[in-house]
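Input record, target 12 of the design panel.
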């Protein structure tokens, strides 16, 4: 038993010594030494990479409804989530004050009408002057316009649905006093099935995407929904600095969507970009949209340059800029190189 254990220890020691000797035998690369590398020819091509983005669904016809005049809310006939139809009464104001204003306007108009008729008779009898008659006509016209304004305000003392859809938000309750133009209800046209996905993209992707580009909306209910880019922002968001694009799905009848629901989209730009596809292993110190590679133009020295990156795939990287006027890219041996290292190209 002791003999077997001792033999095992000696065998393990021999293996470790052999491994250590093998590693120590590797000759380190010293400064100024010629380093063997592999290279490929750089050939510029055109490509278009899919762009993945996320955003929220909306009908783009969401409307904030309010009263034309201020007052106290008498009734609210809907709650958040209720379906509404065009022309349906959704809320009304207490009409006491508004109706009183309309009655005053009617009385003022009737008095102005009587004064004008009496002024006409006096003018024809040469009792009143032409100026007095014209002034009575002006007073009548003003009273008539005031009456129309009061009638208009009365008609807008209630809120009606402007389209078929749903109530998204309710900002007030019955008995609450609101000012003219204050938000009361928010509705949309969701029942019409016109939905879009507004997705956020960075400036580089924004410049690549064009209106009309095909897209695929990723839905948790279906595998994918074909769509198309229909609109893109023309300025950056002042808070985030990002841009947006709107994608309209071809068919949303089978989907159950709500305003603000999260979604993802893959846009396939038709705009082709010039660049280079390089092996992933040739890229060094990548950070954000930039990185470094080694190139050689005379097959003798390595040169380290900064490049602008596009899409990074599993085995390759798209380079959008930085490789102009260079003929060969070093693909192996980069770990031992510094800028200006002497190289030898291997077959």
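The sequence produced for target 12 reads:
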């Amino acid at each position: 038993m002791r003999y077997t254990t001792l033999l095992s220890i000696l065998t393990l020691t021999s293996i470790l010594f052999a491994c250590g000797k093998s590693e120590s035998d590797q000759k380190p690369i010293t400064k100024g030494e010629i380093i063997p590398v592999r290279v490929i020819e750089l050939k510029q091509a055109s490509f278009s990479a899919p762009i993945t983005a996320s955003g929220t669904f909306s009908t783009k016809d969401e409307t904030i409804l309010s009263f034309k005049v201020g007052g106290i809310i008498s009734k609210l006939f809907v709650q958040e989530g209720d379906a509404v139809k065009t022309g349906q009464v959704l809320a009304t104001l207490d009409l006491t004050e508004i109706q009183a204003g309309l009655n005053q306007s009617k009385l003022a108009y009737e008095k102005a009408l009587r004064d004008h008729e009496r002024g006409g008779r006096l003018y024809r009898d040469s009792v009143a002057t032409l100026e007095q008659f014209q002034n009575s006509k002006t007073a009548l016209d003003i009273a008539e316009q005031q009456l129309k304004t009061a009638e208009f305000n009365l008609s807008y003392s209630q809120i009606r649905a402007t389209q078929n859809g749903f109530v998204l938000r309710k900002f007030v309750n019955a008995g609450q006093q609101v000012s003219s133009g204050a938000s009361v209800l928010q509705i949309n046209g969701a029942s019409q099935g016109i939905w879009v996905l507004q997705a956020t993209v960075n400036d580089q992707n924004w410049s690549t995407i064009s209106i009309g580009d095909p897209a695929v909306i990723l839905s948790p209910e279906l595998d994918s929904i074909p769509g198309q880019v229909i609109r893109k922002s023309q300025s950056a968001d002042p808070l985030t600095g990002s841009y947006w694009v709107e994608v309209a799905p071809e068919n949303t009848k089978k989907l159950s969507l709500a305003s603000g629901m999260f979604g993802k989209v893959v846009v396939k730009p038709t705009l082709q970009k010039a660049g280079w596809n390089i092996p992933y292993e040739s890229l060094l110190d990548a950070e954000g949209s930039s990185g470094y590679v080694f190139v050689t133009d005379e097959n003798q020295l390595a040169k380290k340059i900064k490049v602008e990156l596009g899409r990074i795939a599993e085995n390759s990287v798209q380079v959008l800029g930085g490789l102009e006027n260079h003929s060969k890219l070093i693909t192996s041996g980069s770990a031992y190189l510094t800028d200006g290292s002497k190289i030898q190209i291997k077959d």
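Residues 1-28 have pLDDT under 50 and may be disordered.
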